[in-house]
Amino acid sequence: MNRQEELMIFLNREFLSRQEAIEHLGVSKQCFHSLVTRGKITKIKKGSAVLFYRYEIENRKQDAGELRKKYRPFQ
């Protein structure tokens, strides 16, 4: 495995694209943009590339599920 392949594996393991993050969370683009704007999700920008930490997205998804159970127990 060469260095470029190793880097791609690392990027795929640690980061998500905007579309991947939106799909993982199951939210609208507007909701996702609001989360980023309010600082709930960190945006990493390098040139035209925008990435998001996978662990933040996974934590946010878990927290959202717990909040739904707490504030919407009837669903």
TrEMBL record:
It comes from Listeria newyorkensis. This is DNA-binding protein. The lineage of its organism: Bacteria, Bacillati, Bacillota, Bacilli, Bacillales.
